[in-house]
Amino acid sequence: MGFNVITGEEILDLKLKRKVALITGSSKGIGEAIARGLANEGAIVIIHGRDKPKAESIAKDITNQGGQAYSVKGDLTSDNDVHLLFEQVKSCVETVDILINNAGGSGLTEDWTSTRPETWAEGYDKNVLSALRVINRFLPDMRAKKWGRVINISSMAALMPPDQRPDYAAAKAGIIAMTSSLSKAVAKEGITVNTISPGTILSFRLEKAFRQAGKNIGLPYDAPWEEIEQSVLPMFAQVPMGRVGTLDEIADAITFLASPRASYI
């Protein structure tokens, strides 16, 4: 057993103390939650975003709570920016042990009456090629020291594609295929590669959408969240648990996968 470096609570030691983790797209949402979860376990975290002040703010808050964090900036769709990001990271830490490819996302809401090839190309670049650029930079050091973790964030849209945003579903499916291939290539080198595919996860944007949908069916916009969730969730997704997931639940799963205790996954 160990103790949470920030809260002092007794915890199962995940052996992450002093491991260095780069989390792309971690100035908000799932990425931020992942960074905070890893920092809670004693990892040194590198916050990345295209908005430098936001990334710096998250890193500063983690540091103020007793963790250790740095911030870097870069557009992952740019080869030059990824090179500069690599140099920024190297100026902060000697090497990266854990790489979380969280940056990505979807663009315009298109369906099969409006979807365009350029949208697919942009989505593939933003999700798959961005992750590939970062992997190509940081994987060699992992191979050299015979230890590493790569965790790619996909989506349930890759497994159960809806009729809208087909470009996003296809790009996220590409993340899963890339993960499977890479995991086989480096399995004997002490490196594990995994994908997490979040479903319906509570965020500021999701809560706003749910509350607006609730208002459309007659619920007060400021109704208790539990009432909104129970009434609106079936309109968005069929979730067996009957509730949306939380950012902390995603962060907990990834923190475990990033740890030495997940060495055979």
Automatic annotation (TrEMBL):
<dbReference type="InterPro" id="IPR036291">
    <property type="entry name" value="NAD(P)-bd_dom_sf"/>
</dbReference>
<dbReference type="Pfam" id="PF00106">
    <property type="entry name" value="adh_short"/>
</dbReference>
<dbReference type="InterPro" id="IPR050259">
    <property type="entry name" value="SDR"/>
</dbReference>
<dbReference type="InterPro" id="IPR020904">
    <property type="entry name" value="Sc_DH/Rdtase_CS"/>
</dbReference>
<protein>
    <submittedName>
        <fullName>SDR family NAD(P)-dependent oxidoreductase</fullName>
        <ecNumber>1.1.1.-</ecNumber>
    </submittedName>
</protein>
<dbReference type="GO" id="GO:0032787">
    <property type="term" value="P:monocarboxylic acid metabolic process"/>
</dbReference>
<keyword id="KW-0560">Oxidoreductase</keyword>
<comment type="similarity">
    <text>Belongs to the short-chain dehydrogenases/reductases (SDR) family.</text>
</comment>
<dbReference type="GO" id="GO:0016491">
    <property type="term" value="F:oxidoreductase activity"/>
</dbReference>
<dbReference type="InterPro" id="IPR002347">
    <property type="entry name" value="SDR_fam"/>
</dbReference>
